[in-house]
Amino acid sequence: MKILKFGGTSVGTADSIRKVVDILLSYKKKKQEFSVVFSAMSGITNQLIEVSKKAAESNEDYHAILKSIENKHINAVKSLIDIKVQSKVVAHIKMLINELEDLLHGVFLLKELSPRTTDLVVSFGERMSTYIVSEFMKQSGLDTEFCDARKLIVTDHSFGAAIIDFKATDKNIKEHFKATKKIQAITGFISSTVKGETTTLGRGGSDYTASVLGAALGAEEIEIWTDVDGVMTADPKKVKGAFTLPAISYVEAMEMSHFGAKVIYPPTLQPAFNKKIPIWIKNTFNPEFEGTYISAKTKANDFLIKGISSIREIALISLQGSGMMGVPGVSARLFGSLAKKKINVILITQASSEYSICFAVEPKEAEYAAELINEEFANEIQAKKIDNAIVEYDLSIVAIIGENMRNTPGIAGKFFASLGKNGVNIRAIAQGSSELNLSVVIGEHDLSKALNSLHESFFLSDIRTLNVFVVGLGLIGSTLLKQIQKQSSQLLKERLLKINIIGIANSKKMLLDENGINLKDWNGKLEKDGEKMKMSVFVEKMKSLNLQNSVFVDSTSSKDVVEHYEDILNTSISIVTPNKLANSGLYKDYQKIQSAAFKHGVKFLYETNVGAGLPVINTLKDLKYSGDKILKIEGILSGTLSFIFNTFKEGTKFSEVVKEAKEKGYTEPDPRDDLNGMDVARKILILAREANYTLEIGDVNVENILPEPCRKAKTIEDFFVQLEKNNDVFSARRDEAAKKGNVLRFIATLENGKARVSLEAVGPAHPFYSLSGSDNMIAFTTERYKDRPLVIKGPGAGAEVTAAGVFAEIISISNYLKSFI
Ligand code: ADP
Ligand code: ASP
Ligand code: MG
């Protein structure tokens, strides 16, 4: 004999009821003996609670809700039941609805709703659904009898979550089943007192009904049929990557459900456990799938833990004061006073100093719990030895569960590292002494991020997800998106890295989508669905999505974006950027940003600030951290100026060379923005700061090579006219250098803590002498590289190489995360 139970979704529509009966028929075919417990149709219990509350508030809307409850059932009957017997079944449902209506009318008149009446109202859900399914079972060839569990399950008077009298109940069940050979279709969830008052077993209690029946009858197995593939590593509605656990122990299932895994109602496990009856959790909508097997044995799997559970809403109550220290009996009084009033304490922590005790309860009971405690400790509070209890709301609990946690070191470390890396603040910690679970209290707004990052750390230890936001979709930004799109499948396959682009924005529009933006048509999507771009709104949205492993990419050259860096890093989001403004602004701002990143353990990466994709900043860092001493840095840090001076050979005119550079698209629209050396000055400043010098941009000595009239020219055309007139100034410097066998190079230098940018003559022994084209070149002279400098050379500009540099840094963040968790 098996006891099966089908949940609300399984009997939620006529179609799903057909699926249920197909499953039952297949059992009959196998000659399997069984009886079945049913829940109310999905949503009905909630609606019944709502309708009774409305009636008690004298709100006439209750009629409409009642009507919709009626319609849902009548429609199911019409769809399932043969026309010949339909009127009988409809009549029975109408009769129940009338009874319910009378009851609600009473509530409406009295303006009062007792827990006793609520239990009676909600009982109609299971009574109607079970009746309909039992009729359909009969019609489908199953020899069935409707059974109202109120006749069998005897409880006390604790309406809402009644306590079962097992002795009486077991006797009733045994006798009932002895007297009949028919398949029983039993109402879940409902029960009654000895006096015949209707009670319920607590929300989700149909599972419990099945287990109580199974235990009383010594069933071979109990099967709980629901809408997911068994007990999973986490709630699949909250964690996309959750997967089914093939087998878990009763205790593990108990812990999972106690900490919020609604898939099984916690008390269900006890009766089955006592009688060692295994429970299967199976999916009505995927019946071929094996599901989860719950038994006394735990089965080792490849993971450190079995699952992650959460309770979305809890309140934390803390009691503290010197009067608690070393005083025996404080916790006994505290929890005793709560237990007397049946307040369920979900989690307790006490600091070892005994100065404070913290515990979690359901929010709806928090106020009352605090009152009870304040009453219990009234004397101590008056004597100022203990403070009034403090209640905090909007908190959640996350717990990791598994029997293998026992004796396995490092689990807590992994748990906290995963939360810490994602900036999830932990308010309280509790570990059961059984070491079966480790639970923390966190802010409710962090719940989804915490669940997903923990799931990734414990179950998908190889796959990393990065959630990326890109602001600035000009050449670099759009090239980056193209590169990411092209590489995504390879990254997933070879590096087990998944990059989700969650947000994009240009100066006009922004688009954020938690599920990721399809990169095939980001342009069209941004155009169509994007809203007006405002940087502060973008940041707020990014923060409120609160996704794990978030990375913000700034590929603008805007100051407006930089102003948000500190805030972004403070919310534990890493930043990757080719934008130089943050690192070349005021030193104090630069330092604030650097320390925000450090403090929150996130990355602030800007390799592309200098030399685009060339490994300049990382090389400098490596030299520094490996103990080398930087003596001198010299660099040709502008591709434009590199081209101009490498091309400005004998026989050429300076103005012509600049013109050629402009025509080739190498210069800024106004070439003076290159020739004034400011861009190069910012780059050497960034390198100087990286080498630990606290310089400001004003400390960089910049030679302005342009003669006065060129600088003053009002238009670009006028500038070229003036430049032509001044060609001699440049030719003279070049020829002077040439006489000594030297060439002109526009060089940024850092030496003895001083930075300068100037046009210099260098001889054949200098590494920059033979530079050609528009390459960048950086030479580090250090204690270790003293005789010949360490030289880095290559293209130092261009969207492809810059975007690739940004991309590489995004990928490097995934390695960093992996090394921690
Ligand atoms: P039923 O109506 O069949 O009793 P419930 O809604 O009570 O179904 O429970 C099933 C739901 O439990 C799933 O849809 C899922 O969202 C939720 N759930 C929470 N945690 C887990 C978990 N670890 N594994 C599977 N489901 C879970
Ligand atoms: N119908 C009840 C509820 O929604 C019992 C159950 O579904 O298990 O809580
Ligand atoms: Mg349930």
List keywords for this structure.
binds adenosine-5'-diphosphate, 30 helices, alpha/beta, nucleotide-binding, 8-stranded mixed sheet, 821 residues, multifunctional enzyme, 30 strands, 7-stranded mixed sheet, VC0802-like, Rossmann fold, 21% strand, threonine biosynthesis, HDH_cat, binds magnesium ion, Carbamate kinase, binds aspartic acid
List the helices and strands and how they pair.
Elements (H helix, E strand, L loop, with lengths): L1 E5 L7 H16 L4 E5 L5 H13 L5 H19 L2 H28 L4 H25 L4 E4 L6 E2 L10 H13 L4 E5 L2 E4 L4 E3 L5 H12 L3 E6 L20 E3 H9 L10 H7 L3 E5 L8 E4 L11 E14 L9 H11 L6 E4 L5 E6 L1 H14 L1 H5 L7 E12 L9 H11 L4 E6 L5 E7 L3 H13 L4 E8 L3 H20 L2 E9 L3 E4 L9 H8 L1 E2 L2 H11 L4 E5 L4 H4 L2 H6 L3 E3 L4 H4 L2 H13 L4 E2 L11 H9 L4 E7 L2 H9 L6 H10 L8 H4 L2 H13 L10 E2 L5 H5 L3 H10 L1 H13 L3 E9 L2 E9 L12 E8 L7 E6 L3 H22 L1
Parallel strand pairs: 1-2, 1-8, 2-5, 3-5, 4-6, 8-10, 9-11, 18-19, 18-22, 22-23, 23-24, 26-28
Antiparallel strand pairs: 6-7, 10-11, 12-14, 12-15, 13-14, 15-17, 16-17, 19-20, 20-21, 25-27, 25-29, 27-28, 29-30
Helix pairs in contact: 2-3, 2-4, 2-5, 3-4, 3-5, 4-5, 6-7, 7-9, 8-9, 10-11, 13-14, 15-30, 23-24
The structure holds adenosine-5'-diphosphate, aspartic acid (ASP) and magnesium ion.
The site of aspartic acid has 13 residues, from helix 7.
Cofactor: a metal cation
Subunit structure: Homotetramer.
Family: In the N-terminal section; belongs to the aspartokinase family.
